[in-house]
Amino acid sequence: MNIIKLKKGYNLNLKGGISDTSIVNAPMAQTYAIVPDDFNGIVPRLEKKEGDHVAAGEPIYHDKACEAIKVCSPVCGTVKEVRRGERRKIEAIVIEPDGGTETAKISTADVKEALLQSGIWAMLRQRPYDVVPSPDATPRDIFVTCFDSAPLAADWKLFTDGKADLIKKGLAALKSLTSGNVYLGCSASNVIEWDNTVVFEGPHPAGNAGIQAANIKPVNKGEVVWTTDILTVIRIGGLVANGTVDFSTVVAVTGEKASKPQLVKCIIGAPVASVVAGAVDASDANTRIISGNVLTGTHVAATDYIRAPYRQITAIPNIAVEDEFMGWASVSPKKFSIYRSFTSWLFGKGKAASFDAKINGGERAIVMAGEYDRMIPMDIYAEFLLKAIITFDIEKMEQLGIYEVAPEDFALAEYADTSKLELQRIVRDGLNRLRAEMC
Q1: Cα–Cα separations (whole angstroms), residue 178 to 140, 199, 285, 406
Q2: pTM to 2 decimal places
Q3: How does pLDDT run across 40-50, given as a tens digit for each residue?
Q4: Which percentage of the chain shows pLDDT scores above 90?
Q5: What span, in angstroms and rounded, lies between the C-alpha atoms of 145 and 184?
Q6: pLDDT tens-digit profile of 287-308?
Q7: Nearest alpha carbon to residue 77 among 272, 270, 310
Q8: 414 exposed, middle or buried (CB, 10 Å; 0-12, 13-18, 19+)?
Q9: What dihedral do alpha carbons 356, 362, 363, 364 form, nearest 10°?
Q10: How far is CA 394 from CA 385, 399, 424, in A?
């Protein structure tokens, strides 16, 4: 079995990890929602309007540019509200469940058509551009990550044990969609046997599918690969086996402000309040709730809904102290820094640190110190690539590896960045502009 050891990266040790692996069932919520912004590359065109009845697994909207790509309702009920923002952009489709069990039955004779009709297709990602794949393109290879190395993420072994049959069916379905290979990127603690299993050892972001792809078989100009995760593969296996989609998910409620970090089983698109009930005091003004992990997640309110990929909620303190003695020059042993700028590294080795939402500085010029490269285990010059993206120099972007990156690959570098730049936003904007220019 191939083993790849990654040295670049960093494991942030935050307070609020899960110690109790028992799963709590969340009650049925009053509403659920799908947020179109969770599916990059899709411009939604509604198939249902307010007041329409919808079955679980029935399409709510499709992609304006490709009608075959659909996003489906996770519950049986009525479309209660279509929330719109500026220029009538659809921000969320809210569904009120009626308690029914009506579920769309999908033919699995054609795997691609089944994935498109079920909405699972929208859960896949394509490199280049990190968007929902085009049904017309055949991927060179497909990369499946089997673990999450992000801060406070749950151990996926809890969810893959006993699912060998569904995993096998899901992987076989994906294999039928590519002329190349389906690669599994596993951790040493949860190795799943497959024709092309690769074990990754090293710190975060070792669990990112894109990082794994870059270290197994990088993406070159003109090539298309897909990425996904083992939990989506299990969902695909369930579709192949039963002809229906399982829209349930297990969300890890974590973070320092979680009085009781726990695993909660709910339906995707559930309201945040119903998922964190009993674990996080959502009314506390000093609590910041993040749908996802602290590096790539989205800041949400208790009245919002969990965002794709629907697997984690992190609650951390808001800015604890607006003004503190000596500020960035503080020598407090309680302050944490990757670069050992404070004395905490002398006394707190292996100890979980306290993090709040304070940025600790403002934007400034990029410091060419190689700090991005130390956090990104890919064969790219990250600092030069970011400069090329900012100036939108297409030729340099291509030469520096724009086609194999995604915003999440820069998340750790964004945290460690002394320039305080929004690296993920820069990469996302660059990929969107490049796609509009080249496609």
Answers
A1: 6, 22, 49, 21
A2: 0.95
A3: 999 999 999 99
A4: 85
A5: 6
A6: 999 999 999 999 999 999 999 9
A7: 270
A8: buried
A9: -130
A10: 10, 9, 18
